Amino acid sequence: MILPIVAYGDPVLKRKAKEITKDYPNFDTLLQSMFETMYNAAGVGLAAPQIGLPIRMFLVDTAPFSEDEDFTNEEKELLKGFKRVFINAKIVEEAGDEWAFNEGCLSIPDVREDVFRKPIVTIEYLDENFNPHKETYNGLIARVIQHEYDHIEGILFTDKLSSLKKRLIKGKLTNISKGKINVDYRMRFPDEKKKR
After folding, report:
1. Catalytic choice (113, 148, 153, 192)
2. What does DSSP assign to residue 105?
3. Residue 117 pLDDT exceeds 70
4. Which of 50, 75, 100, 166 is deepest in the core (most CB within 10 A)?
5. 43, 39, 33, 32: which is closest to 151 by C-alpha?
6. What is the pTM (predicted TM-score) of this model?
7. What was the pLDDT predicted at 194?
8. Neighbours of 6 (CB within 10 A)
9. Taking all residues of the chain, what is their mean pLDDT, rounded to a whole number?
C-alpha cells in the first residue's frame, strides 16, 4: 500500500526514533508498504519517520543511481545491486575527508542542496529478518545510508546547511509545510489545515 510521505515541518521528522523488536505489529506489511511508497515516489531511500512512524527503520535501494553516466561500470554494478533494510541501526564510525553532493529528500520536494558528509561509514543494524550485521560502506551508498540514518536521529539534510543557505530556502520550506507545492506522489502536510 502506498503511504503518504510526511512533509517538512511535521514534528515526527525532528524526533529521535525508537528501537523496535521483531514482534512489531504488522511488520511485513509495513516493510512492503515502505518499499512501494519509496518506489512510487522514485526515491532511493525511505525512513519510517517519513511515513509518520518514529521507529528506527529505513530502507535503501540505490539502483536508480546506476543509470548515471558519471559512475564507472564497477560503481554502477554496486549501485544497481544495493538494496537493504536497516533496523535499529547505529553508525559506529564515519571516516575520510568530507565531500559535497547535491542531496534531496522526499519529505522536502523541490529543494536540492550540496551537503558535506564523510565518504566512509561503518554501521551496525538488523536486517528485515532481525539478523545482526556490521558493515562498512563508502561513496554514494555510504551517503544514502547517512541521509536515511539522519532521519531516525531526527535530523534533516537542511539542518546541515549554512545559516545563509537556510535563510535562502526558508520561504520554500514554509510553502512545503503548507502544501503549496506540486508533487507527483502522496504527501501529508503539517500546516495544510491552517489555510482553510
Report:
1. 148
2. E
3. yes
4. 50
5. 43
6. 0.95
7. 53
8. 21
9. 95
Strand pairing of 108-117 and 120-126? unpaired
Nearest to 34 by CA among 80, 85, 81: 85
Across residues 92-108, what is the average pLDDT?
97
CB atoms within 10 A of CB 69: 5
From residue 20, alpha-carbon distances to 25, 35, 90, 126, 133 in Å are 10, 18, 13, 10, 16
Mean pLDDT within 115-129: 98
* CA–CA distance, 129 with 106 (Å, rounded to integer): 26
Cell of 187: 504527501
* 153: annotated active-site residue: no
| CA dist., res. 1 & res. 179, Å (int) | 22
The predicted-structure confidence for 151-194, as pLDDT tens digits, reads as follows: 999 999 999 999 999 999 999 999 999 999 999 999 999 987 65
Those residues with Cβ within 8 angstroms of residue 28's Cβ, 6 or more apart along the chain or in another chain: none
